[in-house]
Amino acid sequence: MIKVGIVGGTGYTGVELLRLLLAHPRVDIALITSRAEAGRPVADLFPSLRGRIELSFSDPDDEALAACDVVFFATPHNVAMRSVPALLAAGARVIDLSADFRIRDAGLWEQWYGEPHLCPELLGEAVYGLPERHRETIRDARLLACPGCYPTAVQLGFMPLLEEGLIDTQTLIANAVSGVSGAGRQAKIDNLLSEVSDSFKAYGVSGHRHLPEIEQGLSAMAAQPVSLTFVPHLAPMIRGIHATLYGALNAAGRAADLQALYEDAYAHEPFVDVLPAGQYPQTRSVRGANTCQLALSVPQNRETVVVTVVEDNLVKGAAGQAIQCMNLMFGEDESAGIALPGLLP
Length: 345
Ligand SMILES: NC(=O)C1=CN([C@@H]2O[C@H](COP(=O)(O)OP(=O)(O)OC[C@H]3O[C@@H](n4cnc5c(N)ncnc54)[C@H](OP(=O)(O)O)[C@@H]3O)[C@@H](O)[C@H]2O)C=CC1
Ligand SMILES: CC(=O)N[C@@H](CCC(=O)OP(=O)(O)O)C(=O)O
Hints:
Layout: E1 2-7, H1 12-21, E2 27-33, H2 42-45, H3 62-65, E3 70-73, H4 80-89, E4 93-96, H5 106-113, E5 127-128, H6 131-139, E6 143-145, H7 149-163, E7 172-178, H8 193-196, E8 201-202, H9 210-222, E9 228-234, E10 241-248, H10 251-255, H11 258-265, E11 272-274, E12 292-297, E13 304-311, H12 315-329
This protein binds NADPH dihydro-nicotinamide-adenine-dinucleotide phosphate (NDP) and ligand 2.
């Protein structure tokens, strides 16, 4: 059995990890932390877990966490990097759902996250947890940096086009929409029901912290620097991300069978589903599932390709993808515990 610790068990991604890991055949959850709820039974805070878990929340404690085989950090950024060196030194492996180890350049990280990075020497070792791109290196990772929710959708959507060199790398556009759970579970006036319902807005247009992470990943796919216009939006739904991606096709792209390209590229991926031509993915279809669904469209002028992508931000965008990586790291079936259909048809 894999002995698991979760830091940040009361947040949205933390409880999603719990929901999925409790159904995992090879996982034993040893520790779940919360500073605010220390001592309280987990099932008392989350009644959906009644009868499924006996543990109570505990205060984060690196010594206790170090006895786990793997520790998940479902915490805001600037938290995991305080504990990771000690946990790795003690032999534990770490899967960080936050942004602490996603950007390889410490200076760029500090520019976007506004604090000095506490262990820049580990940035080169951290493996970016996008299995569709880094499956083999994930297997050997001690330190796994889970991609952000928007970055997962945008990178999976553009990947085959960039790897094959079929679009202009300087004019990429991603319009992406998130449900409110993407902002976390802590109380914020902006996220009140009365603020977000019956409303739709863009935010972070002049610069969102996911931009450098996405450009880093896309540039590696294209083997040259890419430039992306990234516009995130908030929609009145709880879960889900919908991204609409635009790429200007070059001559090779205009001549290619893009539907076949995507179907072939993702044919053996358990969690990427390319829809038949003419269909468009909906967030409701992947709610609760570790699935990224996408569709290709080429408007009649054949100048631009449009890729529409959906995922559940808390599953393929966070906890599900983290477990997919854990399965790879521990030699388990990649789909163990996460082979779930969406909650709605
Ligand atoms: N929500 C989403 O859709 C996604 C989120 N992520 C990332 O995952 C991480 C968690 O997100 P989310 O679950 O939404 O966050 P939440 O705000 O919902 O939960 C944060 C959790 O972290 C704990 N925590 C906060 N500060 C500390 C600290 N200093 N030390 C230890 N524990 C702490 C909190 O509990 P307590 O304060 O009681 O200790 C709480 O359990 C973030 O980095 C986020 O960016 C990634 C992809 C998608
Ligand atoms: C709706 C909303 O506010 N979303 C968050 C991003 C989601 C998130 O948690 O960021 P990571 O994926 O990097 O962890 C935001 O825009 O900051």
